[in-house]
Amino acid sequence: MVRYAFYPGCSLDVSAVAYDESVKAVCAKLGVDLVPIADWNCCGATEYWGHDALIAQALIARNLARIDPELEQVTAPCAACYLNLAKVDRMMREVPAAAERVNRALAAGGLHYEPGRVRVRHLIDVLYEDVGRERLTEASTGSLDGLRVAPYYGCQVVRPFCDNDDSEQPVRMDEVLTWLGAEVVEYPVKSQCCGGHMSQISENEAFELIRRLLDCAHRSGAEVIACMCPMCQLNLDAYQGRVNHHFGTGYHLPVLFFTQVVGVALGIEHDVLGIGREIVPAREALRAHGATVVAAAEGGRDVP
Amino acid sequence: MSRRVGVYVCHCGSNIAGTIDCEAVARAVGERVADVAVSRDYKFMCSSLGQSMIQEDIEKEKLDRVVVAACSPHLHEKTFRRACSNAGLNPYLMQMVNVREHISWVTKDQVEATRKATAMVTGAVERVKRQEALEPQYVPVNPATLVVGGGIAGLQTAIEIAEFGHPVYVVEREPSIGGHMAQFDKTFPTLDCSACILTPRMSEAGQHDCIHLLTWSELESVSGSVGNFKVRVRKKARYVNSEICTGCGVCEEKCPIKVVDDVFEAGLGIRKAIYMPFPQAVPKMPVIDTAHCIWFVRGKCRACEIFCPTKAIAFDQKDEIVELEVGNIVLATGYDLFDCRRLPQYGYGRLDNVFTSLEFERMCNAAGPTGGRIVLRDRETEPRSVAVIHCVGSRDKRTNEYCSATCCMAALKFGHLVRERIGAEVYSFYIDIRTFSKDYDEFYQRVMDEGVHFVRGRVAEVTDVPRSPAEEGKLVVQCEDTLLGVQRRIPVDMVILMGALEPRADARDLALEAGISCSMNGWFTERHPKLDPVATMTDGVFLAGACQGPKDIPSSVAQGAAAAARILGMITRGRVEIEPVVATIDEERCSGCRICNALCPFHAIEFDEARHVSHVQASLCKGCGTCVAACPAQVIRGAHFMNEQIFAEIEGLLADAWSDVSEPVAAFAAGGVDD
Ligand SMILES: Cc1cc2nc3c(=O)[nH]c(=O)nc-3n(C[C@H](O)[C@H](O)[C@H](O)COP(=O)(O)OP(=O)(O)OC[C@H]3O[C@@H](n4cnc5c(N)ncnc54)[C@H](O)[C@@H]3O)c2cc1C
Ligand code: SF4
Ligand code: SF4
Questions:
Q1: What distance in Å separates the CA atoms of residue A265 and residue A179, rounded to the nearest whole number?
Q2: What's the CA-to-centroid distance between B181 and ligand 2, angstroms?
């Protein structure tokens, strides 16, 4: 089995703990061996690029350079982290002058990154391609039991780089969840923007973007939204109440990380997957499908 | 062996001289290479002055070999060969060096370019000194012609050749000839009825004494070469006896099985398991689709057989292989429409009221599934607003980078038809409007005057997810209007996607069989993009219509006619000259091992049983050299590619490098580079 360098990123460390917990639990269960990058640092998210490009690139490249030389692939669950790693690797491959600049900066810390040395992959691709349909179907315990899920990809996993999927109407998460027994609903807005940090800068704009995503999931009959990005999860979950207040709507849609849904399908206990950390609780929807039958979960946070 | 070689280095204006120092090349070769009697450079060797310079030198300087360093031999080998023969020199004693495509157009460094040119010219001088005079060969041209594809382009070729009394075989894959044009209602820019101008051509082809239609048939294999091709065609079983079927259509009426017709009706309509694609089909005779016919699937039914008044149904028919001998082949296989599902953001296949351009053509057609009514998928509601999206799968790095050339005009045609027939609002979303041909821009003006709204910008998406009450129940087209500089969302009832024209899915296979090549995009490659868009690099194989690249009906017809003219010329001449650069077997020394027989990719080697030796048929041999290399007795000679000639050329090429290396090496050997 291939071993993957693992870049958790700050969100998973602090705010999206449920993502971190569920990624680790799911990967352990599926035998996907994740090796955290030692002494990793923040990828700078989207902000640093606007401030100073060289610093932004070097921050990211430092993580690439610190990857164990034995490992040839790195995976990051956070959409922004994934995109940053992929972007810098690609830029260094395509623009030798930039690669040289970045490496000169890294050299100050005694580091060097050979462009293209590691393959940067999002976790969904690892599940879709490497674990694959057969093993996922086999591992499924059937506990999703037709849970209606709206697959929400957001912007960064599928754009601008999207070598394996469609960047406008991607299908990989749809397929993985379907293999695992979920009923994936039609969700045409699946790759539209959640507003990102707009929720802190210009609330009204963000509310409208979030409303569209919630509205579409609601109309298509979804019971939960599955997402791939800490920012998306935060916006849709934490701002749901304020959006309802602002528009006079009454959406009640739990927003989970896709790995949490995968974990439920694999029969992993809910508290191990961080279920219950979300603000709009997912328990009810999961229970409606008998998904809480997992015995050990009863002892965890899941007990009402 | 002392020769008198003339060397001519062409400047090609600045094409070559801009990078290569032609004068230096001519001087270096003249001074350094043995046997070079004259070495000159000149602005345009292909001009009449350039040619007469060669002729005069041959006469005055008694040249017996000539090297011309200029462009590709594809362009001017004939020119310079002719110049040599005019002066009495065997044309095969002239060698061209391509210093333009191979050097000046692909090299930046002038010193490197000049060195490479000098080396290549030196190689050519060394080879040409050893070349032998060859005599051109002639083969008779079989006056029969094969046309693959019975669309408008292929029919034009067939009819024009047949008019002169020569036989033409038209191989058409579908049950009827007609191609895409048979699907249309009106044709731009004149809006004349497509059937009215096409069906007379179809029936003319169907009834012509000299035209043999092989419909529901496919090309299996091609062998031979210009003048004398042998072709095998698979006539797929129709399960209908063509001798007695009258085309009455009773079988079709009685057949209980309905199938969505993805070909002729573009998925919008249905047909039966036994069907004629459309009423004016030629030949007027159905075929049975065995994938859906209950008899073939479950061994029941035979309703068609029971009701057929002439007992024409023949369930036991088998595919038939027909062997044809023809002198020339025309490929006229047209295009496939882009699969609009490949751009899921436009919703085709997911959103009911998104249609492809071909579906809309069928919808407008009075003989089509809706009887010519423009309606939504429910077959009832007339749309009150229609969006037409241009460039779907064209001009897009993710799909096809080229412009499909016909879709802007077809989009304008659709705008006109919608305005005229139902008065709905039409929004045409374009990147650039391409209306380049005669009367086309006038048509654009007319459609603008008719009130079609034009929005400039590539559409981002078509969605049924509303953002406001006004968008409820509508298809919303989201687009940046690049003229206004704003994002627009326009709610409409119907969307038409102007899909790209793409090469046929099997175009590469056909190209391989016919021995021609395809462009990067998959279109058949013509001999020259400007000067010979009709022929191909394979003599005797011609192109007509959209299989060579996206084009409209007038251009397809023009190209079809041009192919016919070329072929008629060859038939009239009666014979074609073929390259004498072929392999010959020294029959005295041939052991009769037959190793070469099976190796020849062109099946040019036959075995003479009586004399127990192999023999190369010059008319089939392409001079590839496979047999030459394989013969264990080394008794096959490849003209112009003898060992001696090839080694001499290599030595010539390396002469410069050799001297660079050998000098220090020699010095080292002499112990001179210690310090
Ligand atoms: C929506 C739309 C509207 C259009 N409207 C107009 C218009 O109004 N005016 C206009 O000038 N142009 C129009 N065009 C362009 C027009 O369709 C083409 O110019 C024309 O059809 C080209 O003719 P063709 O004979 O080259 O190819 P086709 O029409 O594609 O015919 C090729 C034929 O070859 C057959 N074939 C293919 N492969 C094989 C094979 N391997 N063996 C045997 N047979 C084979 C096919 O079955 C077909 O019968 C339109 C195009 C589109 C997409
Ligand atoms: S036998 Fe086949 S083609 Fe004939 S009527 Fe029955 S289903 Fe139709
Ligand atoms: S003809 Fe018009 S619609 Fe078609 S690809 Fe070209 S620009 Fe686009």
A1: 10
A2: 29
pLDDT for position B660: 54
Are residue B115 and residue B9 in the same domain, yes or no?
yes
How much is the pLDDT for A153? Answer: 97
Q: Lowest mean pLDDT of B438-452, B583-597, B617-631, name the range.
A: B617-631
pTM reported for the whole predicted model:
0.86
Question: Looking at residue A161, what is its pLDDT?
Answer: 87
Contacts of residue B463 in chain A, CB cutoff 8 Å? 188-189
Give the integer Cα–Cα distance in Å for A171 and A151: 9
Question: What is the reported pLDDT for A105?
Answer: 96
Give the closest of B344, B345, B467 to A212, CB-based. Answer: B467
CATH tag for A139-297 (out of 3.40.50.11810, 3.30.1440.10, 3.40.50.300, 3.40.190.170): 3.40.50.11810
Whose C-alpha lies nearest to ligand 2, atom 7?
B293
CATH dotted code for A3-122: 1.20.1050.140
Q: How far is the CA of B507 from the centre of ligand 3 (A)?
A: 22
| Distance (Å) of CA B669 to CA B609, B673, B674 | 59, 9, 11
In B352-424, where do the E strands start and end? 354-356, 385-392
Asked whether residue B322 falls in the same domain as residue B251, the answer is: yes
Q: Given this model, what pLDDT does residue A296 score?
A: 44
Identify the nearest ligand to the CA of B390 by its number. Answer: 3
Asked if A168's CB is within 8 angstroms of B343's CB, the reply is: yes
Residue type, B301: C
Please indicate whether, in this complex, the C-beta atoms of A186 and B350 are within 8 angstroms of each other.
yes
User: What pLDDT, on the 0 to 100 scale, is given for residue B603?
Assistant: 82
Residue A36 near chain B (CB below 8 Å): no
DSSP for residue A296: G
- Residues 460-519 on B with a CB inside 8 Å of A are 461, 463-465, 467
- Which sequence spans correspond to the domains of chain A? 3-122, 139-297
Neighbouring CB atoms inside 10 A of B586's CB total 13
Cα A184–Cα A185–Cα A189 angle in degrees, nearest 5: 115
B496 lines ligand 3 (CB under 6 A): no
- pLDDT at residue number B635: 94
Distance B254 CA to ligand 2 centre (A): 8
- Inter-chain residue contact A168 with B344, CB threshold 8 Å: yes
Q: Which protein residue has the closest C-alpha to ligand 3 atom 4?
A: B407
What confidence tens digit (pLDDT) does each residue in B100-119 have?
A: 999 999 999 999 999 999 99
Q: Is residue A105 within 8 Å of A40, Cβ to Cβ? A: no
Task: State both tokens at A151.
Answer: 């697959």
B1: confidence class by pLDDT, cuts 50, 70, 90: low
Q: How many domains does chain B have?
A: 4
Nearest-angstrom CA–CA distance, B269 and B141: 46
CB contact under 8 A, B465 and A188: yes
Residue B578 lies in a domain: no
Contact B465 A168 (CB under 8 A): no
- Among B502, B517, B550, the domain boundary falls at B502
Residues in B touching A212 (Cβ below 8 Å): 465, 467
B473 residue type, one letter: G
Structure tokens at B326: 């023809």
B311 and B362 belong to one structural domain:
no
Give the residue numbers spanning the domain of B386: 336-502
Tell me the ipTM for this assembly: 0.79
- CA of A287, closest CA in chain B: separation in Å? 29
